[in-house]
Design a protein that fits this description.
two-stranded antiparallel ribbon; about 10% strand; binds zinc ion; 8 strands; 10 helices
């Protein structure tokens, strides 16, 4: 088991399942997950002008991560209880009921939801959930202002995903008497609007500095905001979360992995402009959100249409 909360949730599930074998999803782990979610939202909520403190953000991350894990696994249990085992082939009912087993990690949980339960999770949500899990594990090093912005933006991404997930995939399979969860959801949605308002306001404040750089501004792999302009002769710096990359190759690769969701990123090409191998063939910028362009993460030059095709072809043959 990866944490105490989950162990508790699973033990509760086991107890309830012994006395109730209806196919409806048992409510106990869901209620447990909702408790974590309410706590996370309370910690993230931006009352008045003061942003959440480092301590607020720490508990927001811990509890949001716990909520994500418990709620996603609750949906897997609805398909079959053995699916939350790290190795379902070795699952036993007794171990499940006692809560004494090694459960699957968050990546495996998402894979199984997609492949077995037909729950679609898009690349951006997947990356944010994975990243939140990593952040929780790295919390002992937490406390940096730059991180606080990124954490808040990413947490609101995961929160947005969870609210949709609960509505679409959990509530429909809950037992009838548990539908009062919708009431909690209404409150959470209202609070979610306050949280995203912080992100929106900060992006608005940054507009005057970011607007002139729209042609080469991409989504930041750290905070997922469209706030990372790529320019020649300056380390790439996100205006929203202040993350900085000294080496163009690093930011290009993180972009490929986290924004394009390519697990094995090999997309770097020689730039037709500066000749350095920092060009990514499939990029979206603020100015070109719908149409792919090629962008050099070294010199910031953007290449449209024919050049993108050439870069693709080079990639396929060489
Ligand atoms: Zn950023
Ligand atoms: Zn270049």
């Amino acid at each position: 088991m990866s944490n105490q909360a989950e162990r508790h949730a699973t033990a509760e599930t086991g107890r309830r399942l012994r006395e109730n074998s209806r196919p409806d999803l048992d409510f106990t782990p869901v209620r447990n997950g909702m408790d974590y979610l309410i706590s996370a939202v309370t910690n993230l909520k931006n009352d008045g002008a003061a942003p959440p403190s480092d301590r607020d953000l720490k508990y927001a991350v811990l509890h949001l991560q716990a909520a994500t894990e418990v709620l996603l696994k609750a949906r897997l249990v609805h398909v079959h209880w053995s699916l939350v085992f790290k190795d379902p082939g070795n699952a036993s009912r007794k171990a499940y009921e006692n809560g004494k087993f090694e459960s699957c990690n968050i990546t495996a949980t998402m894979d199984r939801l997609t492949k077995i339960a037909q729950v679609a999770i898009d690349d951006k949500d997947r990356a944010a959930i994975k990243d939140l899990a990593d952040t929780r594990n790295a919390l002992t090093h937490f406390g940096h202002t730059a991180n606080a912005f990124a954490v808040e933006a990413k947490a609101s991404q995961v929160l947005g995903f969870l609210l949709t997930f609960i509505h679409r995939h959990l509530v429909p399979v809950l037992a009838e008497e548990s539908k009062d969860i919708e009431q909690t959801m209404a409150t959470l949605r209202a609070q979610y609007r306050d949280i995203t308002a912080f992100v929106t306001q900060r992006m608005k404040d940054l507009a005057s500095s970011l607007d002139p750089l729209a042609e080469s501004t991409v989504e930041c792999p750290d905070c997922f905001q469209w706030a990372l302009p790529i320019r020649e002769d300056t380390p790439a710096t996100c205006h929203f979360c202040l993350a900085q990359w000294e080496i163009p190759q690093d930011v290009a690769q993180e972009y490929g992995l986290l924004i394009r969701g390519e697990d094995d990123f090999r997309g770097l090409r020689d730039c037709p402009c500066c000749g350095e191998p920092y060009c990514v063939g499939v990029v979206n910028t603020v100015q070109s959100k719908e149409t792919d362009v090629a962008l050099c993460f070294g010199c910031g030059d953007v290449f449209y249409e024919r050049r993108v095709r050439d870069l693709h072809n080079e990639g396929m043959t060489g």
